[in-house]
What does this fold into?
Amino acid sequence: MLRITQQPFRNFECIDSGLKLAQLTELEKIKHLYFRAGFGMSPTQLVHGRSSTLSDEIRAIFIGAKAKPDIGESRNLSLNKSAPSFLSKSMFDAGSQMNAEQELEIARNQWIRQMAEDGPDLLQKMVYFWHCHFACVCPTAQLANGYRQTLTDHALGNYRDLVLAVAKSPAMIRFLNNQQNRKQRANENFARELMEVFTLGEGHYSEADVRAAARAFTGWSSDKGGKFVFRRNLHDYGPITFRGHTGRLSGEDIVDIILMDKQAAHFLASKLHTFFVNDLPDATFVDQIAAVLIQSHFDLSTCMRFIFEHPSFYHVGNMGKRIKSPVELLVHLIKLLDLTFEDENALTFLQNTLGQTLYRPPNVAGWPANRNWINNATLMLRLNLVKYLVDATGFDHAPTASLKASGPMDVIQTINLQKNLDPLITIFAGTSFDVLEDQIKSMLLAGGSKQKLSKPGDTRSPDFIQRALLRTMQLPEFQLC
Amino acid sequence: MFNRRKFIKQSAILSCAPMMPRFVSSSLKNIDSGQSGKVLIVVQLSGGNDGLNTVVPFGDDKYYLARPTMGIRRNELIELDDRTGFNRALKAIYPLYMEGEMTILNHVGYPNPNRSHFRSMDIWQTGGSSDEYLSSGWIGRYLDSECVGCDRPYHAIEWGDNLSLALQGEQRMGFAMRGLSKLKRTADDVFLNQLGSQYVTDGNDTHLDFLYKTMTEVQESAAYIVSKSKKNRSVSSYPDHAFGVGLKQIAELILAGCDTQIYYIQISGFDTHVNQKARQGPLLRTYAEGIRALTQDLKNVGIMQDVLIMTFSEFGRRVEENASRGTDHGAGNTLFLMGGGLKKPGMYNDGPDLANLLDGDLAHQIDFRSVYANILEDWIGTGYEQVLPKAIPKLDVV
It folds into this structure.
């Protein structure tokens, strides 16, 4: 039975890097929770959060995480079958891969919409984390949806079940060539990555481990319909010796033996800390997370609750210390501005252009995060994105070299979408002018900002509120979460 | 003989003096810095260009056996020697070959080839092996290395709206640009400029410091490039295609003495699974005509010997044609080097060897990193070991 002693919540004081005492408001802590356990707060969530408590919100996000999102059936979600306005005919035309790519676009859009919903914030953030962790390139919507279903089913369940489900996921089996892993003709790709990037980390396994594990996973394959199959005749029934254990080891045994190593808990704890808390390591906190994983037998819900209830999580030095990934940025903007994209491929285009496309990580090691998102092109697009989306003008962007593109440059100048800024503006309708700017910055920015948005002569008007909101979203500070 | 350093120095002084942005003064001192004074232009044929129908082994019957409908007949080719010929679409660059300003390398690739576009492109752009995942590019790591002037983002420019992994280092990055109007908007954005000038760092090198620093560099670089671009006009006629527009922009920056050592540009659409002839021909023609226009611009001012153009694609295509008059993803491929300073112009090694295939694809004989090593060390003027992950033999072509 797991027992974790912890202080009840209160407005504790913490010392930030400048040795300055900071008193955080309840809403600031709730906002931090939603940036990390979700994708930021929608206007509705902000209004609610103003009169809520942190402990109520933590309870709420875990209840919301029990949602069972609808995955797949994506064909019905197709809104627009004709060539989207921003793609020229040459790009839209022919090619057998085009249909597969369109279906993937629909699958991505469905997921992005679900990420932006109020309620399943934590569930979707976990699924997104697992996609970053168990990085897998999915070439078709069917594989992508199956893989997301797997990650969703176990997102806050047991880590052992999750690792095994991923090992049986047809998308991963194909991505890491396990269908070619056969008795006497082992393909070691999956076995190696299982230990190197999924569970233990480099330097914590041997080449003999890889060879032995690969044999245990022989015959783990998938059929044409995208379902897992165990091909008995291709399986190596051993005996196999893996990390000191000998016998007729199955893939399940391999995962169990791996998870017996404390390094497995430490590796996951470290990844969780980097992703949810801070990319600067905090050895004490990581050790505590690892201990919770071991004590709870890798119960992910227990582990995540431990993190989000931990006083260190709410340290001001952790706030606004991550650079939003492209997906996090897009989802936050969708939530804030209630965006609905009318072109199916608009969101995929934005992901490509910002440097992160769901179901297409660069390789099995996943996306390198934080500063790796930023270069001159992505930064200027990020800073101007809200302007482009809200004003619907000024956009002027050529997609990354498309495999299909030829002929004159296809430049995208409009993204068709619907937006609704009223809920956001309404939040500040009663705020007096002298605190308005500070209120806006404190509600929308993860780490605040010292930048002045108003000019001398500005007065309180709906126009000013809208301008201050948009300028806040143009600040480099808005890129942080 | 007019040499590029002098040319750049002169044109820089002539062209920049009247309206030099404040931050340029320091870089002007380094104007002939780029360690060798040489310029490299990398051209990426995206999608996997079919090298076999680019440099065609007409002397080998196996070629026509593997490509009964797609094989190009000898009388349709421009013969390079008694075995191989250019696809006629490359007519515009044939004079470069004849004048000793082009080297053709055959069978370029890497061990355990990957046939995914994205993965293979990453391998070429990072300079890693097929089993290692690097998060920085080979040009980016050159920028990271201790080279003079490399701290300026515009030391390496990619034409386009996205910065390729090739130009992303661990510390430093190249600069992506497409057209001046967008750059001008970036340079002139009053609100963002004001933010940059108001920001006060607490000196902790936080992510926020990094964002502001990057933003300010982008604004300054944009202003610098805009100031350069006004100065010199190309006189050549470029193809009416994004690639032509980009090459023309690159030519004008070189002519204006922009302090940029490496340019990167892509032309895409080479993924010819279906009806290849109708698609590859026009693309190769656009490519060749663009290169001809560029080299004419360079020759007009006598700086051809200071510019090297490398053309590559992420993989070649399957030797055997498919059922849709196209070809599927392959491995080893042809790589072109062009410029005035080539040590071994002409055909560097024997043309495609169809007798020794690897899983139906051309095997690699030259590791592409050997070409990078050669360019880095002997053209750019930097030790290649600090840029490329593994010690590999260096070619001696440039």
About this structure: Residues 197 and 365 of chain A are 6 Å apart (CA to CA). DSSP finds 21 helices and eight strands in chain A. Chain A has a mean pLDDT of 88.
